[in-house]
């Protein structure tokens, strides 16, 4: 028999055991706050160039680590201001989503990975993987930056960056259906957990009511 959800958690729907939550079994937060994400990005500035761009991509796009590692130069749309990810969690192949990202990230990707040059070649860079790394190598690069930023616990991970993106987007007033599209969620109910943001984010939301 399941217990009462902790504050900030949704009850898992019947028939969907183990649904995504913002807290682990011990009640520890699984997402970085806005301030923690800023610390992470500052620490990433001191990391090796390829690690820095991977960290920036995870933080600013909300993509999964595997989706970032699969990114190729042809799916960096410099003119459109978006990154195009293959949505790897859904059952069928060939599903892509475009996620708007800051110009600073696009500039960093071009500088470090030679996006414009790759796109001038045959195939427009479709064979130029930005990070030809294993998943473990990518995870270790992100973890090293988390340690440098003084971050630990369940939130100090690539998944914690993805959750941070969702919380920040919803807290900023981005409609849930748009956040769902950017994150590549199959169900809107999955995205809706980010409306349960707590801590500093919930305080910010509450201040709007108090004001």
Report on the architecture of this protein.
This is Tyrosine recombinase XerD. GO terms for molecular function: DNA binding. InterPro entries: DNA_brk_join_enz (IPR011010), Integrase-like_cat_sf (IPR013762), Integrase_catalytic (IPR002104), Tyrosine_recombinase_XerCD (IPR050090). Keywords: DNA integration, DNA recombination, DNA-binding, Plasmid. It comes from Komagataeibacter saccharivorans. This protein has 211 residues and is mainly alpha-helical. It has one domain: hpI Integrase, Chain A, CATH 1.10.443.10. Helices cover 45% and strands 6% of the residues. The protein has ten helices and three strands, in the order αααβββααααααα. It has a three-stranded antiparallel sheet. A hairpin with a 4-residue loop joins strand 1 and strand 2. Helix 1 packs antiparallel against helix 2 and helix 2 packs antiparallel against helix 4. The longest helix is centred in the C-terminal third of the chain and has 14 residues. The N and C termini lie far apart (41 Å). The N terminus is likely disordered.
> What is the helix/strand order?
HHHEEEHHHHHHH
Counted beta strands: 3
Coarse structural class: mainly alpha
Q: Widest sheet: strand order? A: 1-2-3
Shape: globular
* Low-confidence region ranges: 1-17
CATH top level is Mainly Alpha
Using the coordinates shown, work out and report the CATH topology.
hpI Integrase, Chain A
Assess the beta-strand content as a share of residues: 5-15%
Q: What name goes with the CATH superfamily?
A: Intergrase catalytic core
Number of domains: 1
Helix content: 40-55%
CATH architecture annotation name:
Orthogonal Bundle
> How many whole angstroms does the radius of gyration measure?
18 Å
| Biggest beta-sheet profile | 3 strands, antiparallel
Number of helices: 10
């Amino acid at each position: 028999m399941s217990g009462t959800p902790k504050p900030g958690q949704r009850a898992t729907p019947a028939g969907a055991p183990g649904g995504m939550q913002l807290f682990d079994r011990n009640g520890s937060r699984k997402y970085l706050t806005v301030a923690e994400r800023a610390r992470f990005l500052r620490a990433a500035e001191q990391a090796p160039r390829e690690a820095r761009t991977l960290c920036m991509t995870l933080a600013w796009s909300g993509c999964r680590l595997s989706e970032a590692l699969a990114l190729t130069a042809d799916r960096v749309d410099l003119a459109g201001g978006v990154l195009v990810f293959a949505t790897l969690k859904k059952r069928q192949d060939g599903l892509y989503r475009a996620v708007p990202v800051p110009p600073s990230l696009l500039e960093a990707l071009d500088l470090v990975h030679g996006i414009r040059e790759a796109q001038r070649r045959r195939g427009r860079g479709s064979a130029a993987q930005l990070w030809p790394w294993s998943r473990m190598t990518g995870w270790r690069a992100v973890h090293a930056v988390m340690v440098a930023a003084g971050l630990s616990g369940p939130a100090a991970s690539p998944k914690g960056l993805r959750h941070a993106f969702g919380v920040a987007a919803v807290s900023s007033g981005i409609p849930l259906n748009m956040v769902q599209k950017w994150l590549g969620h199959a169900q809107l109910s999955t995205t809706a957990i980010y409306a349960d943001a707590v801590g500093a984010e919930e305080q910010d939301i509450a201040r709007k009511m108090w004001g």
